[in-house]
Amino acid sequence: MIEAPDLSLAALTPLLFVFGAALVGVLVESFAPRHVRQPTQVALALVGTVGGFVSTLLIAGRSEVTAGGALAVDGAGLFLQATIAGLAALSILLFAERGLDPAKSAFVASAAVPAGSPRDRELLTDERVQTEVYPLATFAVGGMMLFVAANDLLVMFIALEVLSLPLYLICGLARRRRLLSQEAAVKYFLLGAFASAFFLYGLALVYGATGSIRLSEIRESVSTDGTGTLLVLGLGLLIVGLMFKASVAPFHTWTPDVYQGAPTPVTAFMAACTKVAAFGAILRLLYVAFGTADWTWRPLVYGIAIVSMVVGAVLGLTQTDVKRMLAYSSIAHAGFLLTGVIGLGGGTGSGLSATLFYLLAYGLTTIGAFAVVTLVRDGDGEATQLSQWAGLARRSPLTAGVMTFLLLALAGIPLTSGFTGKFAVFRAAIEVGAWPLAVGALVTSAIAGFFYLRLVVLMYFSAPAEDGPSVGVPGLPTTIVLAVTVAATLVLGVVPGSVLDLADRAATLVG
């Protein structure tokens, strides 16, 4: 007789909200008249993400394992789910920014058209609006929220595919620069398939070594039987698969091309939400399954952190495109985040809470920076070449000021959330004796600060070109995104105490 697994519907409410909105969105796309799809899909996506965010707040404090042990509901998982849902709601607003002017939408009206064909050129001014991106993005959000709560390697793999497949599609839906967008989608898909294969092979090796794919049972096996060669190899492959999704060097090769080619709202969505989800899974795997054998993974993570910080900071100096520059910034920040992961080895929880805070701060700042990128436009769409941003402060002082503030936050300047986040993760690393890594992070952070300041100098101290780009007036959705991200970046830098305390209380993982 098969017994039904225990199931706590209250604990699953955030997932039910998001996946429910995604499924209804598919039905709307199938049956609703075209003229009502855009407002309906935007409303559904916001209901799903905001509902998921609110429900995580309502069930805060729960600590249990449900769905037959496949899902864990705990402080860190709920904090990450709330972060993903909140950042996703801001991303949905960016998706919807140009819905009132379909010809200026970031998304192509019909994706099933060869790039560069006469029909493709006609679609540049087509009045139709692409609405399939909303249920696709909502499915991706559901996969991310499931990813950070998975207490089972097989569920974690399924969540990885659920969040990845919609992203592969929406990366190729840019209205302009179609070939670049499609190339980005194909690269992301192919490299993502390799990463998934690494994860699945690692899962098989871990199962062969321990006889289980449940994280808690893996921990028990490690505690009693130790770690053999098979288990260490499996862990290494699992880490490779997760590091790819987190865009950590040397598994970062997809990141600059995809960030540049994807529609900018999608880039913002990926840069913020996907990184939170990937690091959430990394934390759960290392803390719950292998926390008692941190010597097996700390040297590997230590080396990867150094490589990622150096690659992101040094190669970021050579970029001439704003989106590619922010891509290498993302790679460098992934290295900084790994210094917080190293802090897990102390058993005090400071590394976990510091990483949670950093993910929130970085996600908000990054979405704000990409929101500013959507406003600087020329005849071909968004003007992303650094040379086109010369003298931007004379054309729009407010836009240049907002971008400067967000860049300074990414650089970790005091009185911004970036400084607080870096201070927290560096301190966590020092507490467990990884002070050389913290020193290296400080040096690479100073190097990375150069390419942020280079853009600031261009905006304020260079003469604008006569045929330079214009700065669009943001609509209500983008205005909301900029207001929220700038205010949050300032508050988390000036008075971060309450959120740091919240992260400390949430720094628990059950298995």
Automatic annotation (TrEMBL):
Domain named NADH:quinone oxidoreductase/Mrp antiporter transmembrane: residues: 150-447
EC number: 7.1.1.-
Superkingdom assignment: Bacteria
Subcellular location: Cell membrane; Endomembrane system; Membrane
InterPro entries documented for this protein: NADH-Q_OxRdtase_suN/2, ND/Mrp_TM, Tubulin_CS
Reaction catalyzed: a quinone + NADH + 5 H(+)(in) = a quinol + NAD(+) + 4 H(+)(out)
Subunit and interaction comment: NDH-1 is composed of 14 different subunits. Subunits NuoA, H, J, K, L, M, N constitute the membrane sector of the complex.
The family this protein is said to belong to: Belongs to the complex I subunit 2 family.
NCBIfam families given in the database record: NDH_I_N, PRK05777.1-4
Cited function: NDH-1 shuttles electrons from NADH, via FMN and iron-sulfur (Fe-S) centers, to quinones in the respiratory chain. The immediate electron acceptor for the enzyme in this species is believed to be a menaquinone. Couples the redox reaction to proton translocation (for every two electrons transferred, four hydrogen ions are translocated across the cytoplasmic membrane), and thus conserves the redox energy in a proton gradient.
Name the record gives this protein: NADH-quinone oxidoreductase subunit N
Organism per entry: Klenkia terrae
Gene: nuoN
